Amino acid sequence: MKVGVIDVGGGFRGIYATGVLDYCQDNGIGFDLALGISAGSANLASFVARQRGRNYVFYTQYAFRRRYASLWNFIRGRGFFDVDYVYGTLSNSGGEYPLDYPALRENPADLIVIATDAVTGEAAYFGKDALSQDNYAPFKASSSIPFINKPYFIGGKPYYDGALGNPVPVEKAFALGCDLVVLILTKPADKPRGQGKDAKLAKHIQKKYPNAAEQLRLRAQHYNEGVALAREYAEKGKLVIIAPDDTCGVDTLHKDREALNRLYEKGYNDGQKIKEFLREKGLYRDKEST
Q1: Contact (Cβ atoms closer than 8 angstroms) between residue 104 and residue 98
Q2: How far apart, in whole angstroms, are the C-alpha atoms of residue 287 and residue 29?
Q3: pTM recorded for the entire structure
Q4: What does R_g of the chain's alpha carbons equal in angstroms?
Q5: Using CA of residue 101, residue 127, residue 217, residue 181, what is the dihedral sign?
Q6: To the nearest 5 percent, what fractions of the chain are helix, strand and coil?
Q7: How far apart are CA 7 and CA 35, in angstroms?
Q8: Is 39 helix (H, G, I), strand (E, B) or coil?
Q9: What is the percentage of the chain residues whose pLDDT exceeds 70?
Q10: How far apart are alpha carbons 160 and 180 in whole angstroms?
Q11: Which string of DSSP letters, residue by residue, matches 70-81?
C-alpha cells in the first residue's frame, strides 16, 4: 500500500511536526509520498534526506537570529523570513547545516513542495526534479507569506505560500495514488481556523496579485474544509490526523524557546499515533527509516 504524509506547515508551529517526524525516524516509520507546505516542506525535506534532528536545530537555534526572521529583515526588504538565508546560506553545501541533497535524491520516497502561483492563485506542485544541489527555490516560494514576504520568482513566475492554493492537500495525496494518509496539523484539529489577519494582508497585494489576494481571504475557509474532509477519510480508516491539543503559545511569527520545546515534545509523543495507525493496517514493522 502507498502511504503518504502531509505537513501543512504553520511558521514556528512547525516544530510540532518536527517532533512527529523525529519520532517516525526513531521508530523506523517511512512514507512513500511526502507533501509539504511552507515550513512543512522544509521539515519533510530533512525527513526524506534522513537528517533526524536537523529541523529542531533550525527552530530552536537559527530561528532566533535576526537574519532568520525579524522586523529588521522586513524593513530591509528581505521579508520577515529571509528565505534566502534559511534555504540558501544555512542549507547550501557550504552552509552551517546543509541539506543532504544526494540523500534526498536517492530516497525512493516522492517529495512534493506546494506553492501558490501569485498571478493565478492556483496551487503549484514542485517535485524533486525542481530541486538541485544548492538550488532550493521551491522551499523559498512555498514559505513566502503574502506581504510578510515578497513573492518568490521561479522561472520568471512569482509564487507565494502554498497555504493559499491548497492548505490541506488531502485530495491531492489520494489523487497521487495514496491508499493511506498521515495528516500533520500544527494547531488543534477541533478548533476551526479564523481569518485572523488574512483580509488585511490581502489588501496589500490586491492591486498587483488580485487572484492571490482572493485566495488569501478564503484561506481559512479552505483550511477548515480540508480538515473536515480529512475527518471523513479518518472515519473510513484511510487517514489519521496528528495535531496538538495546544500550541503552547507558539504562533506563526511568535517564538519562545521553552514553548518551542514543549510543542516539540507534544509532537514527538503524538507520533506514536502513527505507529498505532499503521499497525492496525498491518503495515508497521521495524525497518530503515525514510
Answers
A1: no
A2: 7
A3: 0.95
A4: 17
A5: negative
A6: 45, 15, 40
A7: 6
A8: helix
A9: 98
A10: 28
A11: -HHHHHTTS-SB
